[in-house]
Amino acid sequence: MPDLTPEPEDFTAHDALLMRRALDLALLGAHTARPNPMVGCVVADADGRVVAEGWHERYGGPHAEVNALNNVPPGIDLAQCRVYVTLEPCSHFGKTPPCADLLIARGARDVVVCNDDPNPLVAGRGYAKLREAGIRVRTGLLADEGRRLNRRFFTVQERNRPYLILKWAESRDGFVAGPGGQPVAISGPAAKMLVHRWRTEEQAIMVGTRTALNDNPQLNVREWPGPNPLRLVIDRTLTLPTTHHLLDGSQPTVVYTNKEQPDRDNLSFVTVPAQQDLLPAILDDLNARRVQSVLVEGGPALHTMLLEAGLWDEIRVLRSRTVRIGAGGVVAPPLSLTGLREQHDLGPDELFVFG
């Protein structure tokens, strides 16, 4: 019986460099791998030179290890190489065969991994297979960076809900809209472009009833290349006019309501009984749809509900340096600076990131 005790962590700076390259490769699958995690793989020879690379390019397609090993040039002995992969190699048959089996079959002898896979179908079984085959396995290299990269995937696996990002723009005096919810142009061009980039990075985007009524948003991507998110709107009593953008059928949209309503092209209605808690019902539905992340764009009532319930992972606030709205406006959600992680200058605006 082989010794399955994990190897001590004796990583070098060069190991870290190659794992960081694998993380960079993983990011290339940001728009196409989901709902699978982003994974990258680097194969280096005995002298530490990269001989092959790969990443998980699309959901349902070959995993990162498969693509990397297929790129190993003829004549290279994998037993003399070290394989760097950002997530524990899978051990089960899904849409593709197990990557752990492939590494064993191809003669790998040394594997370094960034993050453990919390998926119950893997969860240590990949490591066990490799170690039972006599492969040296070391884990945890740049683990924090890997978790940050795949934070959406880890949230779904560990909390059974999507990663939730609350986003709003507020005036210098702390308002998000004018009197009665009247829309006010708050953010400058750089901030608007950044918001559209954010939309490409998340699977879904959500607004509440009042924001949908007052702003008539399109919730699509216009100022950055990338896919449109799934649109989500809360409309308990089906008060949105059929002429509003969210009901135009131009992109997949889900409406959460208390009333029965038949689906239409690109438009789904999910009935939540009035006596049932709305937020858990929405999150359960999104989990069933395998939605990994939601950008919640408003309004303040929805943001406050999520804040009070502790249902958020990240908050992004765009604060204008110049625009003031004055008394009578809609006040931004209450938020202290506790947990501030990033602060950025965007010309006439500042970006504050919490969480």
UniProtKB/TrEMBL annotation:
PROSITE patterns: CYT_DCMP_DEAMINASES_1 (PS00903), CYT_DCMP_DEAMINASES_2 (PS51747). The keyword Hydrolase applies. NADP(+) binds at A169, R199, T211, D215. One of its GO terms (biological process) is riboflavin biosynthetic process. Its cofactor is Zn(2+). Residues 13-138 form the CMP/dCMP-type deaminase domain. Binds 1 zinc ion. Pathway: Cofactor biosynthesis; riboflavin biosynthesis; 5-amino-6-(D-ribitylamino)uracil from GTP: step 3/4; Cofactor biosynthesis; riboflavin biosynthesis; 5-amino-6-(D-ribitylamino)uracil from GTP: step 2/4. Zn(2+) binds at H63, C90, C99. It catalyses: 2,5-diamino-6-hydroxy-4-(5-phosphoribosylamino)-pyrimidine + H2O + H(+) = 5-amino-6-(5-phospho-D-ribosylamino)uracil + NH4(+); 5-amino-6-(5-phospho-D-ribitylamino)uracil + NADP(+) = 5-amino-6-(5-phospho-D-ribosylamino)uracil + NADPH + H(+). It comes from the Bacteria. Substrate binds at L219, R222, E297. Keywords: Hydrolase, Metal-binding, Multifunctional enzyme, NADP, Oxidoreductase, Riboflavin biosynthesis, Zinc. Converts 2,5-diamino-6-(ribosylamino)-4(3h)-pyrimidinone 5'-phosphate into 5-amino-6-(ribosylamino)-2,4(1h,3h)-pyrimidinedione 5'-phosphate. NCBIfam families: eubact_ribD (TIGR00326). This is Riboflavin biosynthesis protein RibD. It comes from Hymenobacter jeollabukensis. The lineage of its organism: Bacteria, Pseudomonadati, Bacteroidota, Cytophagia, Cytophagales. The gene is ribD.
